[in-house]
Amino acid sequence: MSEAAPAPVIVSDDPASFAHGVLAERHPALVARVLDTVPYGPGERAALTALLDNHLKGVVEAPEPGARDAERWTEEWGLPEHLGRSWFAAPFLWAESYFYRRFLDALGYFGSGPWRGVDPFRPFKRAELDGPGTEEELAALDALAEQPREARAAALLHGSLWGNRADLGFRLSVESGHGTGAAAGGTGDARLVADDSEALWSLLPVGTLCLVADNAGRELVPDLLLLDHLLRHGEAERAVLHVKPHPYYVSDATTADVLDAIERLHRAPGEAGAAGRRLWSALAGGRLVLRAHPFSCAPLPYADMPEDLRREFAAADLTVLKGDLNYRRLVGDRLWPPTTPFARPTAYFPGSVAALRTLKSDVITGLDPHTETGLVETEGQRWRTSGAHALIQVRP
Ligand SMILES: O=P(O)(O)OC[C@@]1(O)O[C@H](CO)[C@@H](O)[C@@H]1O
User: Which reaction does it catalyse (predicted)?
Assistant: First the structure.
């Protein structure tokens, strides 16, 4: 491949690939889990089962008639190109994203019936917030408060980074043995395959910081704690938190999830409760602003973002994107040579941009050659998808 040629887009048609495994194994596991957890009626169950059958063996079909976003999918998000073709022939990012859109259709999320607006993934998100893991993490904030400010900032950054392992989609394949995940691995710096944290801190303080959130629950809580820290200490005058306009990729955070997370903090004792109260006031007072742009659920890379979103990111002094899916969309869901400089596929992004991500899919850029060689020698290609490694990358 020449220097200038873009790397190949990832497609799910190779049965040996990670992408194929997501469609063929992770999605059936997800359907089973949701139907086990939520007492949807026979109609919704039949529709979801039919969708899964179509996804695995059939061809891409149009959304339910009258869908309010049908025009967008048709005119802007590439649906006509894939209609009538196997889901496995479409780009991985497109197929996966459309599956979540159709998932909500099957369960009446966009309909006019009683399941309208009911998040099928909410029980999983709530269980995380109410679980002992969250309780322990919140209690640890009291001891952290004794630390010097820089140590606190570093701990909160790493909390937000490693919180990214908390997506149910990823854990489904780890639990069912289909993934190569190491969900309980260590979290020390040795597991960072790229660490631009110095460059990240050097960009602060800023006026407006955009944080493009990923998962709810145990990822969103540390994201909010990081934002609270930055706002409180003047490292950002204002923060804009981008969430999804509807449930997506199982655990992705919506406005309702932000409210649940703040409520969880609010009712905690000590430092966590104080952070919850500050975040509540920041939202009420406009220093913390929520955005739920439709493009956040688009099946496309950020390089194709619409003009209004581009202007929004351009107006921020720094945009931080969380998680694996956002990384795939930021650099393009392509098989880049891992040593491709991070600055190259992100050159189009308006303004300074940073990525905080645990590695849970094949896409990777910005590795130095020694790091890549060392990873391949010890792990083959498993390091790309196991979730055991993470990165902090910055393009100022
Ligand atoms: O964006 P997140 O929550 O970090 O990860 C989402 C994820 O689980 O979904 C995709 C496969 O389903 C992978 O890109 C990734 O592992």
Answer: beta-D-fructose 1-phosphate + H2O = D-fructose + phosphate; beta-D-fructose 6-phosphate = dihydroxyacetone + D-glyceraldehyde 3-phosphate
